[in-house]
Every structure is written in structure tokens, then in C-alpha cells.
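User: Please predict the structure of the protein below. I'd like the answer in C-alpha cell form so I can feed it into my own downstream comparison script.

Assistant: Understood. Taking the following sequence of 64 residues as input:
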Amino acid sequence: MDDNNNNRAQEGRKRSLTSVTLQWVAEKLRRTARIKEELQRGTYQVDSNKVAQAILDGENHPKS
């Protein structure tokens, strides 16, 4: 089997909820570590568009 067929087979495979959750947690931890490093170096820059979108999303989905 060549690499293209192998990649297509892996893309079509369903992943378990545990696998998806662990991947999400790992990405969250990597992002947090990157932001902490950038804050310590003084190079972190806030993405104003993402902040604004998060605020708007919060207003559209009020907590009960």
C-alpha cells in the first residue's frame, strides 16, 4: 500500500471519544505552555479579534 492510500485509511477511521479528548487536552496544555513562555519573554501579543469574538460568544450564550 502506498502512503496516499494509508493516509486516506487513517483519515476515515473513527476515533474514540477518549482519543479526541486526550488530543484536545494535549493541545490546550501546549498552547498554555507557549503563552506562558511568550509572557516570560515579553513577546506575547493578544489577538484582539479572538478576544472580541470570545466576548461576543459569551454574550450570545449567557450562563444559566
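That's the full C-alpha cell string. Residues 17-41 form the longest helix (25 residues).
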